[in-house]
Design goal:
The chain has a 9-stranded mixed β-sheet with strand order 3-4-5-2-1-6-7-8-9, sandwiched between helices. With 612 residues, it is an alpha/beta fold. 48% of the residues lie in helices and 14% in strands. Helix 15 links the parallel strand 10 and strand 11. It has 3 domains: 7-273 and 597-611, Glycogen Phosphorylase B (Rossmann fold, 3-Layer(aba) Sandwich); 277-371 and 439-592, Rossmann fold, CATH 3.40.50; 386-401 and 411-434, no CATH class.
Length: 612
């Protein structure tokens, strides 16, 4: 792999001349997971360097996603437009236009379903020529194979037409896009191929099932393990893509080591993931935004907790963790253990602070818990009556003060409230208050009895008791503006919190702590996460910038949990002034991760592939 240290050399890199760049990903105009963020956030910086006329993205066409993300073209006179017309003449459903994101890049989208009649032929070709055996009846693999066939055919036409440049680069992201690579090489098309794996699927499965994954990495038999976890077709696609590329890259040194042993090829270089920091930047507004959104989180917390018992919101900190539900891989297990320890430490030290920790992930559920919704609705009723009383008292106070004779005396405000409003408020409060403990989960899960987060919370008695300094809200759905409990999007929610906790055991990169950093929120991650590993190696004094890193590799689970608990305990004891100063240092440090800086690694890869 390319060593991370060569900052001086990389900083001077410019994009190759007389070159056209295609980027191919399953998540172009198709929001599925983290790669969507990589591609979308990178677009403005790529357009700045390459321009609209030298850059085009390729992705799958799904009507419901395209409706929100895609603007069709009317002019097909360019070489790309002509290639699209050729494919349409053959009866393929191909779309050309612009992606409705910052930069408005050109995109070509292929509908996999339009070649489903050829699936048997496509799969036979992959097996015969490249030893990739795809089973029948797997919906995702069928779509990926069909999409790959269409992309391959498109590049055959592109190779025939004159794009106006002697060099063409096709940069494929992840296995879902990688199927055309072996065919492009076999047919000797004049296209330079870069392949980036953002994580190996086999590595993800192994890490979930082997606590000593990194220690055992060199000893796995990839074929046996892939067969065991029933992911052999995907592993074959990953290997063929990695070995077929002129330049093979990954997102972190950690994942590079994984590729060496599981894919059989060491990446040529590492391309770290960045963000479009301008989208997050608030500069001097960062504290104002935090306070404003924190007030909205207060609204939820009052509705959720105060019907059972109150606590001082001015002395309350909001922690959170988020990501896909992988109990060990995402570090939910160690986070819970550390929170239980933090709860004990705060009680022993008699810390006059409450920590509310949100677990935001995705699990199958039936509905939002009716009692949680009812509590939310009831406190809103209380608020509306308070507003009525405020309006009534305000008018009467003004009249009373201005009409009074003699020396000024402040009037008795309680006499200015009508009895019916007093009664209405009393009834609302009485129907809202309860002796039950606040719910530790906001939804009704389909597997409530076997859910690992709930099992831990119940076994540890971390169930939002009145005396608990650490409270937990488990929200098994992603936060969006349509969510009736929060009424904000995830990015806003992050800004309103105080600390993100992501001590992952397996994380090829990890956008969540980077999103925290860009929002001015300190976070904790681990050195076995790609982002954490990058921070340790490139950002000195990272703790001072709100980037806390815990060591996980080869260590005892409970020692790791104790380290995490101690970092959180130290954070809880910081003064408000110190936390505000830390937020500003976080946002300042985030500029390092803007694509205008990290894009240089991509530029170096493109220069290298053109040379080869």
């Amino acid at each position: 792999m390319e060593p991370e240290k060569e900052h001086g050399e990389i900083a001077k890199t410019i994009i190759p001349q007389d070159t056209f760049l295609f980027e191919i990903a399953w998540e172009v105009c198709n929001q599925v997971g983290g790669i969507y963020t990589v591609i979308r956030s990178k677009v403005p910086s790529v357009i700045d360097k390459w321009g609209h006329e030298n850059y085009c993205l390729i992705g799958p066409y799904f009507a419901e996603q395209a409706a929100a993300h895609f603007d069709p073209a009317t002019d097909f006179s360019s070489p790309i437009g002509k290639a699209v017309l050729k494919l349409q003449e053959r009866g393929f459903d191909v779309h050309y236009g612009q992606w409705i994101v910052s930069g408005r890049p050109h995109v070509v989208l292929f509908n996999p379903y339009s070649v489903y009649d050829k699936l048997g032929e496509i799969k036979y070709y992959l097996w015969k020529e490249f030893n990739i055996s795809l089973p029948g009846g797997d919906e995702l693999l069928d779509k990926v194979a069909a999409f790959g066939y269409l992309v391959k055919e498109f590049f055959h036409y592109i190779a025939e037409f004159d794009l106006g440049h002697p060099n063409m680069i096709a940069h494929f992201h992840e296995w879902m896009a990688g199927i055309p690579i072996p065919a492009i090489r076999k047919d000797k098309l004049n296209i330079k191929v870069v392949f980036t794996t953002h994580a190996t699927l086999l590595g993800r499965y192994l890490a979930m099932n082997d606590p000593k994954f990194y220690d055992h990495l060199a000893f796995y038999n990839w074929e046996a393990e892939a067969t065991k976890f029933n992911v052999k077709p995907i592993a074959e696609i990953e290997r063929a893509s990695a070995h077929g590329a002129h330049i093979f890259t990954t997102v972190s040194e950690i994942t590079g080591n994984e590729c060496t042993h599981l894919l059989g090829r060491t990446p040529d270089m590492v391309l770290p993931n960045g963000l479009n920091i301008v989208r997050f930047e608030a500069l001097h507004q960062i504290q104002n935004q935090h306070v404003k959104i924190k007030e909205q989180i207060h609204d939820f917390v009052m509705g959720h907790f105060f019907q059972s018992y109150p606590f001082d919101l001015d002395k309350t900190l909001y922690f959170f963790t988020s990501g896909r539900y992988e109990y060990q891989n995402k570090g939910y297990d160690v986070t819970l253990e550390a929170l239980a320890r933090l709860n004990y430490k705060m009680q022993v030290a008699n810390i006059d602070t409450t920590v509310v920790t949100f677990f935001v992930t995705k699990k199958p559920f039936y509905t939002i818990n009716p009692e949680v919704l009812q509590s939310k609705a009831q406190i809103e009723d209380v608020w509306r009556v308070c507003e009525e009383i405020k309006e009534q008292v305000g008018k009467r106070l003004y009249t009373n003060i201005t009409a009074a004779e003699g020396p000024y005396l402040f009037p008795d405000l309680s006499k200015m409230v009508d009895d019916y409003l007093r009664l209405k408020l009393r009834r609302n409060i009485q129907s809202w208050k309860t002796h039950k403990l606040p719910k530790i989960i906001t939804h009704t899960l389909k597997d409530d009895g076997s859910d690992e987060i709930l099992q831990f919370l119940r076994n540890a008695n971390l169930v939002n008791n009145r005396h608990d300094k650490v409270k937990v809200v488990y929200h098994p759905d992603f936060i969006t503006t349509s969510n009736p409990l929060f009424r904000m999007d995830y990015t806003q929610f992050v800004r309103g919190c105080h600390l993100g906790i992501f001590p992952s055991m397996y994380e090829p990169w990890g956008y969540t702590p980077l999103e925290c950093l860009a929002s001015g929120i300190p976070s904790i991650t681990s050195e076995v996460a790609g982002f954490g590993d990058y921070v340790v190696n490139t950002i000195p004094d990272h703790d001072e910038k709100g980037l806390y890193i815990i060591n996980r590799k080869g260590r005892n689970f409970f020692d790791i949990a104790e380290d995490l608990a101690n970092i959180m305990f130290k954070f809880v004891q910081m003064s408000r002034r110190d936390r505000i100063a830390l937020r500003y240092r976080c946002e300042e440090a985030s500029l390092h991760f803007d694509w205008s800086n990290l894009g240089k690694y991509y530029d170096k890869a493109y220069n290298e592939v053109v040379k080869r």
